[in-house]
Amino acid sequence: MITVLSGGTGTPKLLQGIKEIVNPEELTIIVNTLENDYFSGVYVSADIDTVLYTMADMINEEVWYGVKDDTFITHERLEEIGCAELLKIGDIDRATKIQKTQLIEKYGLKKACEIQSDKMGIKADIIPMSEENSDIKIVTDIGELEFHDFLIKHRSEPVVEDLKFSKVNPAEGVIEAINNSRAVIIGPSNPITSISPILSLAGVREALKNTHVIAVSPIIGSDAVSGPASKFMKALGIEVSSVGVADLYKDFLDTIVIDDKDSQLKSQLNQIVNKVIITNTIMNNLGVKKELAQIIIESIP
C-alpha cells in the first residue's frame, strides 16, 4: 500500500498521475481538514471534496475546486436576494456538501467520506486527517482573519505575521495507514496549512519515521507554484525554498523531489535528506503528471 498526504490543489494534480499507474485499491489518501467549516448551512471540506472529485474524474481543473461544467443557479439566486456567499459553490458540488452535512450528523466525517467515495466509484481509501473540528487564524497587518476570509475575501493580499491552528486528534485509520504503507508520499500542497496540520497529529511524525517518505516540493525558486505558501513560510521564519520544505520534514524525510530549475540546491539538500530527485514538477498536463508519478513510484525501495 502507498499513502499520500494531501491538501487541495498541488497534490490532487499529482494524484491524477498516480492513479494512472498505481492500482487505486492499493492507495490511501490522508486529507487535510484544517480549513473545514460551515458555509450557507452546509459543511465545506474543501480539500476532501477536491480529492474526491479528482479521484472520480469530476474536478474542475480550471480552479481546482468544485465540479467541472457545474452550474451556479443557487449561488446566483442567493446573491440576487441579498444572501451572497463567500464561497462560490456550484449546484452539483452543493448537493455533495448537503449530503456530507447530513452524513456527518449521523456517522461522522470519516464514514461520510467512505459513503461518498463508494457512490462516486472511487476505489482508493480517502481518510480525513481528523474527525474533530479544527480552526485556523491568520494574523495579518489588518488583524486576525479566518482562512477563507484571507484567501477569498482579501485575495491573500494582507501581510501575514503569524498563523495559529488548533491541535486535533487523528481520525481512526490515519496512523494504521502510515504504519502499513511501503511508502508515504507528501504531495506538493501548502507545507504550512495543508501538510503541517497532518504532521501535528499525535503519532504521525513517529509513524513516518518507520516508513519510506518522499516529498514533492511545492516551491520553485523562492515562491510557491500556487497559493500563499510562501507568505506563510516567511511569516514563520522558514526559508522559502525547497531547502525550507526539506527542513520542515527532516526528522522523517528520505527523498525530496524538486524542479529542474532548482538543481543548484542538490548539494545543500543532500545534507538534509538521503536522496534528491530533480525533474519537471510543473504538472500542466496529464503526461507530465504520469511521468512525475512514475519517477516517484520507481524511487520507492
Question: Mind explaining what this structure looks like?
Answer:
The radius of gyration is 18 Å and the shape is globular. Helix content is 39%, strand content 19%. It is of the alpha/beta class and 301 residues long. The protein contains 13 helices and 14 strands. It has helices at 10-21, 46-55, 73-80, 91-107, 109-119, 147-153, 174-179, 191-199, 204-208, 229-235, 242-248, 266-269, 286-298, and strands spanning 2-6, 27-31, 37-39, 42-44, 125-128, 136-140, 143-146, 160-165, 183-186, 213-216, 219-220, 223-224, 255-259, 275-279.
For the biggest β-sheet, the strand order reads 5-2-1-9-10-13-14
Q: In percent, how much strand structure appears in the residues?
A: 15-25%
Largest sheet report: 7 strands, parallel
Number of helices: 13
Please give the number of β-strands: 14
Oligomer: single chain
User: H/E series, N to C?
Assistant: EHEEEHHHHEEEHEHEHHEEEHHEHEH
Sum this structure up briefly.
The protein is an alpha/beta fold and about 300 residues long. Helix content is about 40%, strand content about 20%.
Properties at a glance:
13 helices, 3-stranded antiparallel β-sheet, 301 residues, 19% strand, 39% helix, alpha/beta, globular, 7-stranded parallel β-sheet
Set out the fold topology.
Blueprint (H helix, E strand, L loop, with lengths): L1 E5 L3 H12 L5 E5 L5 E3 L2 E3 L1 H10 L17 H8 L10 H17 L1 H11 L5 E4 L7 E5 L2 E4 H7 L6 E6 L8 H6 L3 E4 L4 H9 L4 H5 L4 E4 L2 E2 L2 E2 L4 H7 L6 H7 L6 E5 L6 H4 L5 E5 L6 H13 L3
Parallel strand pairs: 1-2, 1-9, 2-5, 9-10, 10-13, 13-14
Antiparallel strand pairs: 3-4, 6-7, 6-8, 11-12
Helix pairs in contact: 1-2, 1-13, 4-5
